[in-house]
Design brief:
Elements: E1 5-12, E2 18-20, E3 25-35, E4 52-61, E5 70-79, E6 86-93, E7 101-104, H1 112-130
Antiparallel strand pairs: 1-2, 1-6, 3-4, 4-5, 5-7
Length: 132
């Protein structure tokens, strides 16, 4: 029996779809971003600059092996414009596309002392800025 995996099939404006997924993922997402002055009452730090519209499709591995986990992408900040049509289909399939990039994920610090030391470092760095 062929093993299937969760995947997202993304199609933008009728172009060839991208099927994002992998058998070692713990996170898979498709995110549409609209950033900037998005309404008549909103303000932006960059007056007159148009809103930034883009889509990113990526994920995070969750590997049982010693191989490091990675943040991976199938679509990286592809620009969008008003009127674009994005179709997202949730699948369970072995037929997925290879990601276009990957970056090793930082390991989470679960150790209490490590977390304390991190917080202490941030506090000492920002103390003068916020204390009277």
């Amino acid at each position: 029996m062929e093993r299937t995996i969760f995947a997202l099939k993304i199609q933008i404006n009728g172009e060839a779809p991208v099927t994002a997924g992998s058998d070692d993922l713990g996170v898979l997402n498709a995110i549409v971003n609209c950033v900037g002055r998005l309404g008549s009452k909103s303000v932006s730090g960059h007056e007159g600059e148009p809103a930034d519209l883009f889509i990113t499709v990526g994920g995070l591995t969750s590997r049982a092996s010693e191989e490091p986990d990675e943040h991976i992408k199938w679509i990286s900040q592809k620009p969008l414009k008003i009127g674009d049509v994005i179709l997202v289909e949730v699948l369970d399939t072995p037929d997925v596309d290879a990601p276009i990039s990957g970056k090793e994920a930082e390991k989470r610090k679960h150790e209490e002392l490590e977390y304390f030391e991190h917080c202490k470092k941030v506090y000492l760095t920002l103390r003068e800025k916020y204390e009277d």
